[in-house]
Specification:
nine-stranded parallel sheet, Urease, subunit C, domain 1, five-stranded mixed sheet, about 25% strand, binds guanine, TIM Barrel, alpha/beta, binds zinc ion
């Protein structure tokens, strides 16, 4: 536990967040809150007060430290809803499309995670990447080795990072060193659930990698786990690539479609997160809606692996919750700002709108809602956990020029989306504690 968690801190600066969840992204601007000179008071890791500086000052307790971030923009911490820990180092590796890329890059990298020392060292690197990019909540796949997930959970726990993670279940169609079996995957996952799920800010996700790498027996075992532990998440991949989809049809000819493979085994529902969903059939859209399952939109990955363009409008029309995701290492950046920029382009190519406020919502409160965590994180409502990011809108010379031209908060945020990356993240706070400060950034002034 972080030592500063019991302190009260007041943060003064410019704040931007979204006040309420919505099914209608076109109306999101009605819920945007902008405080030009705002105040956030944090006590015991939670938000006690959020409002404007002038009227809020009297709420500040005596002897409380007041940090003033001048010329910055403070937003809720970013939520990455789909990322692969054992692919921490392989982002951007050259390859063909999904199935060849898995063989050539992902599987070889994942073999190393049976070694606890390597997993622990990489967990520190991985978490540092999240923090330095402003990501304060993530849903992460481990490798098939339970040690990989233990290493990641232990590293997250040290700084109180909100993390959902799970050991990949995979009993066919992968290198022998990476295979478990239905019963061992059940037992290992169960042990991890019992040890970590609900401990502090950690949650478990039952993680069958994707239908092609699990037998029906293993998917049954995964479904059995979900029955025994209904408040645990499920994360997997769905309908990412044409070759993959054809393969699933061959492997599961008795199932109506790809989504039905998971539904048949009890793996769908409000805590089930399906990565990609680029080529869904009409019936699959309907079933995702009916089961209130969740989609992770992974734009940099879908572009890099040539998978296709995610249809956000269709998801919105079906009122399906969508979170944004880096999908490292199929994705090419840990930065949720860069991921937003690519999401914008993917939607532009389909004539779909993705306004600055839709972007802000998607990486903060919308992401929290996708993970059913919007009662705990996602905006600055009093009572919520104080996870937030201090962004520098002038991190580069070009951005500094755009900053001068920005006429309103939407321009300001959109410039961070299109030009921003880890250089834009000056400070990251988790549970009210500073966990990352960009080297060379100006420390907040104490007043
Ligand atoms: N489908 C199954 N495994 C993976 C993975 O590791 N990355 C991506 N992008 N898709 C997958
Ligand atoms: Zn993935």
């Amino acid at each position: 536990m972080n030592p500063s968690i019991h302190q009260t801190t007041a943060i003064r600066g410019r704040f931007l967040d979204v006040s309420a969840v919505t099914n209608n992204l076109d109306q999101i601007e009605n819920n945007v809150r902008y405080q030009e000179d705002g105040l956030l008071i944090i006590s015991d890791g939670c938000i006690k007060f959020f409002g404007d500086w002038q009227t809020g000052q009297e709420e500040i307790p005596n002897h409380c430290t007041i940090l003033h971030y001048k010329d910055k923009l403070i937003v809720p911490g970013f939520v990455d809803t789909h990322i692969h820990f054992p692919q921490a180092e392989i982002a951007g590796s050259y390859g063909e499309q999904l199935l060849q890329w898995l063989e050539k890059h992902a599987f070889p990298a994942e073999k190393q995670f049976g070694h606890s020392g390597y997993a622990a060292e990489t967990a520190d690197f991985f978490i540092n990447q999240l923090l330095s990019n402003g990501t304060t909540t993530a849903a992460a796949f481990g490798s098939v080795h339970p040690e990989s997930v233990s290493a990641l959970f232990e590293a997250a726990q040290e700084i109180d990072l909100r993390l959902i993670a799970g050991k990949v279940m995979m009993d066919r169609n992968a290198p022998a060193e990476l295979l478990d079996c239905a019963s061992s995957s059940y037992e290992e996952s169960k042990k991890l659930i019992e040890k970590y799920h609900g401990t502090g800010r950690l949650s478990y996700a039952i993680s069958p990698r994707f239908a092609p790498t699990s037998t029906a027996d293993q998917l049954d075992a995964a479904g059995q786990l979900k029955k025994e532990f209904p408040d645990v998440y499920v994360q997997t991949h769905l309908s990412e690539n044409h070759e993959e989809i054809q393969w699933v049809k061959k492997l599961f000819p008795q199932r109506e479609n790809y989504f039905d493979v998971y539904q048949h085994h009890g793996l769908t529902g409000p805590l089930s997160i399906f990565g990609h969903c680029v080529h869904l059939e009409e019936l699959e859209w309907q079933k995702i809606q009916e089961t209130d399952s969740v989609i992770s939109f992974c734009p940099t990955s879908n572009l890099f692996l040539g998978s296709g363009l995610f249809d956000m409008k269709k998801a919105n029309d079906h009122k399906i919750r969508v979170g944004l995701a880096t999908d490292i290492g199929g994705g090419t950046s840990y930065s949720m700002l860069k991921t937003l920029a690519e999401a914008y382009k993917v939607l532009q190519l389909q004539g779909q709108n993705f306004s600055p406020w839709q972007a802000l919502y998607t990486v903060t409160l919308g992401g929290a809602r996708a993970l059913s965590l919007d009662h705990l994180i996602g905006n600055f409502d009093p009572g919520k956990e104080a996870d937030f990011v201090v962004l520098d809108p002038c991190a580069t010379k070009l951005q500094a020029r755009q900053y001068e031209r920005a006429e309103n908060p939407a321009d300001l945020f959109f410039s961070l989306v299109t030009l921003g990356d880890d250089r834009s993240v000056s400070h990251t706070y988790i549970n009210g504690s500073l966990v990352y400060e960009r080297p060379g950034s100006i420390t907040a002034q104490e007043t």
